[in-house]
Amino acid sequence: MNPDLVRLGFTPSFAGHFTAHAAEHAAPRLPARVVTEHRGAYRVHDGTSERWAVITGRLRHEAESALDMPAVGDWVVLDETPDTEGRAVIQAILPRRTAFVRRAAGLDKKPQVVAANVDHVFLVSSLNRDFSPRRLERYLALARESGAEPVILLSKADLVDPGPALEAAAAIARGVPIHASSSLTGEGIEIVHGYLRDNTTGVLLGSSGVGKSTLINRLLGEDRLATSPVRDDDDKGRHTTVRRELVVLPTGGIVIDTPGMREIGLWDTGSGLDEAFDDVAALAAHCRFSDCRHEKEPGCAVQKAVAEGALSADRLASYKNLQKEGDRLEMASDPRARTEEIRKNRVQARALRAHLQKKRG
User: Fold this and answer.
1) pLDDT digits over 33-87, tens only?
2) pTM above 0.85, yes or no
3) Pick the CATH number of 99-257 from 3.40.50.10190, 2.40.40.20, 3.40.50.300, 3.90.780.10
4) Where's the EngC GTPase domain (predicted)?
5) Which of 69, 117, 323, 347 is buried most deeply by CB count within 10 Å?
């Protein structure tokens, strides 16, 4: 394979998909990776150079949602013949290996692919005033569903003792690597480098001002991305990054910078929620009813664990909130799911009434 493409993360799997696509078309095609997106146009890198590209009308017409449009990190197929304005033309998107998808900010319940084809999802939370276990749980559910490996980075370790936050993060993210880092002192930087070897790709996700761009500059060894200093009044960084951007590191890895997220809406968490809350899922397997909602049902192993202090009530509440959010999304998009939910509620209500009548009798 072309070593310049390999440098961008082009694997034998992507090469196979591209070869199969190219074999079906007579016009010359070449692969490229999406570096950034801006107002419907895409900056792509073909291993030799970057250029602007647009998608074909057919691809736009056939797209059922944003999931079918190119995203930063995607591998796409370009027509070698540019359009009348000299832009490359994207004919197809190669199948994604992984994708971090959230519900787009705003009232519309639409998906947004934040980053595609990443190996590691770095969940960045600063140690001063940004750290929130509940927010981390939300990120972890989406990261697990993405197919990539989550890594928690607690930034700005030069400002605060990381010990308490490390313990709190470990309590909700069993089996997930957790590291303290500081772009000022260099703490943890080599650890991050270690995840980004051999042309692997990572994406940095977190709130505005947690130091994502500053961390990338430290990994680059130069101030390439714009950053802003921490505010004096609340110790928070200023929002700087305005769009997602793929950056190739001189050490061999690839990292995607992202704007700070004000909203982390779930989108099709599926098994990701149970993976992020594997302790709750393990307890739920011992509930009397397979569809137990862990509220007032008899024989609920989860509520028993909360009563005995083996499970935090806050963690259970977070799990149930995310579960209900996922259910609402499913019902909003699938009438059959709404009907099934109504049926399940009726069955559960009848079972509970029967149990209570039996106890009274």
Assistant:
1) 999 998 888 999 999 999 999 999 999 999 988 899 999 999 999 988 878 788 8
2) no
3) 3.40.50.300
4) 116-262
5) 117
